Amino acid sequence: MMQRRKCSGVSWKSKNSSIRNTHPFGSEPSNLGTFIIIDCNTSERSGTESEKLAAVSKLHPDVIFFQTTRADVAKMFLIDPEIKRPALVLLEKESKQLSHFDGPFTDARIYDFISLNKIPPMITYTRETAALILDSHLQELWLFVTVHDSETKSIFQEAAKAFKGKVNIEIFSVYFQMDLLQTDRRQIFGYFGITGHASRVIAVNGFFNGEKYVLNGELTLSNIKSFALDFLEDKLRSQQSDTTLL
């Protein structure tokens, strides 16, 4: 049986679903990782909704769960006071970007929402992140650049942020350092048909079996965002002048 305690209208669900006497505006905000705020009515603080959140929290031990009934907390996290409660918003720790949940309040949908949005808008390919990227069934947008091309990296990161937290948009944006990373480089280069060190953006529908498209032209913010949006809307096949099917 899950015990419950209050602290200034905010409760915290740890990875083992217990309630800790703290809140996101206490003595340790700078130490917080990615966290979820759930704004609910007083009558919803127990029962089915809390049981669903407790179940999901066990599956995301790297995410901190807060539950509140305070209007000032909801306002701080841009939760519309007119929408039906409970309302759920995720703050990703690296980008500080808010993602609002817009779907049925079920275990599966909440789990999927957190799985996607707890990830930074742009993921750097490393030994630690390789499995997450390569095993994903989501559409992926890859940037291949040398470590010295910080300008293109920044542009790509801004494009990635534009799609983060949007309803019905599920895409990984992956940053691959061509001249530094040795692990898996030959496999990745072979899969994408890469030779040389020219910067490029490639979209792929699922890593192992999906179609791959390369963006032709200058890697500007506008071009990358348009390319990504057309990729998500399955329009690239008809745009061979702007893209190449690998």
Automatic annotation (TrEMBL):
Residues 1-25 are annotated as: Disordered. One of its GO terms (molecular function) is protein disulfide isomerase activity. Coiled coil: none annotated. One of its GO terms (biological process) is protein folding. Residues 11-21 have a biased composition (Polar residues). GO terms for cellular component: endoplasmic reticulum. Belongs to the protein disulfide isomerase family. This is Thioredoxin-like fold domain-containing protein. It comes from Citrus clementina (Clementine).
